[in-house]
């Protein structure tokens, strides 16, 4: 038995397939599950600590002293990071920091410069 997703409108569990669409018999909502997944992937927006949207190539500044895992070093507040790259995962910024090398940072600990 295949498991179909709940209705996005009323959260009903009684959805069924009708051709390429999924239909909810309780609220009569019809949707295309393929377009829903494509739409959700493109909505992934990464924001800094102040709520500014980050893009590849931006410059950011660290807003908190961060301990470097596996080292006794600390990234100091105000450290500038140039040319960031956004990636999937828990640490969503990939960058190179002068004096430290390649690092992965969480967007909640940086602000856009």
Automatic annotation (TrEMBL):
Residues 3-32 form the Protein YjdM N-terminal domain. Pfam families: YjdM (PF03831), Zn_Ribbon_YjdM (PF08274). InterPro entries: YjdM (IPR004624), YjdM_C (IPR013988), YjdM_N (IPR013987). Residues 46-113 form the Protein YjdM C-terminal domain. It comes from the Bacteria. Belongs to the YjdM family. This is Protein YjdM.
């Amino acid at each position: 038995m295949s498991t179909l997703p709940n209705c996005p409108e009323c959260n009903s569990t009684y959805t069924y397939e009708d051709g390429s669409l999924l239909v909810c018999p309780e609220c009569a909502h019809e949707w295309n599950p393929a377009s829903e997944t494509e739409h959700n992937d493109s909505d992934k927006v990464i924001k800094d600590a102040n709520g500014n949207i980050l893009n590849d190539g931006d410059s950011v500044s660290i807003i908190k002293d961060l301990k470097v895992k596996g080292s006794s070093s600390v990234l100091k507040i105000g450290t500038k990071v140039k040319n960031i790259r956004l990636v999937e995962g828990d640490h969503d910024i990939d960058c190179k920091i002068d004096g430290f090398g390649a690092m992965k940072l969480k967007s909640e600990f940086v602000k856009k410069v």
